[in-house]
Write a structure and sequence with these properties.
Radius of gyration: 22 Å
Helix content: 40-55%
Strand order of the largest sheet: 3-8-9-7-6-5
CATH architecture of the largest domain: 3-Layer(aba) Sandwich
Order of helices and strands: HEEEEHHEHHHEHEHEHEHHHHH
Oligomer: single chain
Largest sheet: 6 strands, mixed
Number of helices: 14
CATH topology of the largest domain: Rossmann fold
CATH superfamily of the largest domain: Thiamin diphosphate (ThDP)-binding fold, Pyr/PP domains
Bound molecules: thiamine diphosphate, magnesium ion
Length: about 425
């Protein structure tokens, strides 16, 4: 039944791949959530009409315990295309900047880049509503930006400067924003935290869902399965998102997992596989998942994606896979290149518009790099704050100055 409906949809989509005016659209394009702190291009400001295209997604979804899945026929407005392309380009440049600053030894500690996985963030963000929440792991810079942290807030955080989004004290893995719970370095840890956020939404009846993103490596952890079970029992408004980039730290997924169809691993929980290199597929899958989470309970979404770099900056990333494999993905499945080609083929954006966005994104990131370099480090007395919720000046163990000046045993050590 579903297959027949799908075939009909596909045929319709082929017929529909022409320019329409927005009044002719049967299914309105995705509701956009206004974002904070991001200078996103605006159709009106740029003097554009609200044209849109309807098209068929090239790759079908795979479903687990679902009779019907996400829409494969999708619509995109010109203003949305401008916005998505700008976000894709900026997130990539942001990571290039992070890599550069790391190589200059201005970034201390770990640094995990998101390069290659940008469509996952842009597609999910496009479907999120203002009251939805998100939590992810350590590959967090692009997500912080997508959730409203300005580029300088990300780069200043990486370089340990005071205008970083965590005051320069969190670093690469600890970035947060409104409705954005980070940023956690413990593999899989974000999944139970995300279940807690979803529980809060259910308890407060605020109508939000929580998306918890984790990797294919993290998917083998016990705590993830515990959360599947509890989320199902409690019918939490939760979307488990497995970003399957095919590798754990240095291990191909087949070597670590007996079942690499991660979307099927929730047992009774429904699941979807979507092409994580295609912004519009990710958006469509997320729209479906949000509705499902609100009306029926938790759902698992696997996004097939790829990371170009090593696991972190200290991993060249070529000892467990070949350079040819990476080059092939870059040539054939790059999310930005793919979206750019789609926009040009469908005449949604012109080459000039694309080049202009590239230029604007470059200026934004170069400005952020300059600002991060110029920024000061946090003042020394900031060592006392943000450890516990109170101010324990003079009572914290491990803060050298106080150990010289105070007798902690008298004050009551924390
Ligand atoms: C509990 C725990 N175990 C091990 C590690 C070390 N570690 C960091 S990332 C990683 C692999 C995770 O792979 P995956 O979940 O696929 O995420 P990806 O890096 O591919 O985005 C491991 C084993 C850790 N940080 N935390
Ligand atoms: Mg992985």
């Amino acid at each position: 039944m579903f297959n027949l409906a799908n075939q009909i949809q596909c045929r319709l989509a082929k017929l529909l791949m022409v320019r329409f005016s927005s009044t002719q659209l049967s299914r309105p394009p995705t509701e956009e959530v206004p974002e904070e702190g991001q200078p996103t291009p605006n159709a009106q400001e740029m003097g554009l009409g609200d044209e849109y295209r309807v098209m068929l997604l090239p790759n079908d979804f795979k479903l687990h315990r679902l009779k019907e899945g996400p829409e494969r026929v999708v619509a995109i407005r010109k203003s949305q295309a401008l916005k998505y392309y700008r976000q894709l380009a900026t997130v990539r440049l942001l990571e290039t900047a992070a890599s550069r600053l790391y190589k200059e030894q201005l970034v201390r500690g770990f640094c995990h880049l998101y390069t290659g996985q940008e469509a996952c963030a842009v597609g999910i963000r496009a479907a999120m509503r203002s009251n939805d929440n998100l939590i992810t792991g350590y590959r967090v810079h692009g997500w912080a930006y997508m959730m409203g942290v300005p580029a300088v807030g990300v780069l200043a955080e990486l370089t340990g400067r005071r205008s970083g989004c965590s005051g320069g004290k969190g670093g690469s893995m600890h970035m947060y924003g409104r409705n954005f719970y980070g940023g956690t370095g413990i593999v899989g840890d974000q999944v139970p935290l995300g279940a807690g956020v979803a529980f809060t939404s259910k308890y407060l009846q605020d109508g939000g869902v929580c998306l918890a993103l984790y990797g294919d490596g993290a998917a083998n952890q016990g705590q993830v399965f515990e959360c599947f079970n509890m989320a199902l029992l409690w019918k939490l408004p939760m979307i488990f998102v497995c970003e399957n980039n095919n590798y754990g730290m240095g291990t191909r997924s087949e070597r670590a997992a007996s079942n690499i169809n991660y979307y099927t691993r929730g047992d009774l929980m429904p699941g979807i596989w979507a092409d994580g290199q295609d912004v519009l597929a990710v958006r469509s899958a997320t729209e479906f998942a949000i509705k499902h989470a609100l009306n029926k309970g938790p759902i698992l979404m696997e996004l097939g994606t790829y990371r170009y770099g090593g696991h972190s900056m200290s991993d060249p990333g070529t000892s467990y896979r070949t350079r040819e494999e990476i080059q092939k993905v870059r040539r054939q499945h790059d999310p930005i290149q793919g979206f750019r080609e789609l926009c040009l083929d469908q005449q949604i954006l012109s080459l000039d518009e694309i080049q202009e966005i590239n230029q604007v994104a470059r200026l934004e990131i170069e400005g952020a790099i300059r600002a991060a370099r110029k920024d000061d480090e946090p003042p020394l007395n900031n060592l006392w704050s943000d450890v516990y919720s109170g101010l324990f000046e003079g009572k914290l163990r491990g803060v050298l100055a106080l150990e010289l000046e105070h007798d902690n045993t008298k004050d009551g050590e924390v």
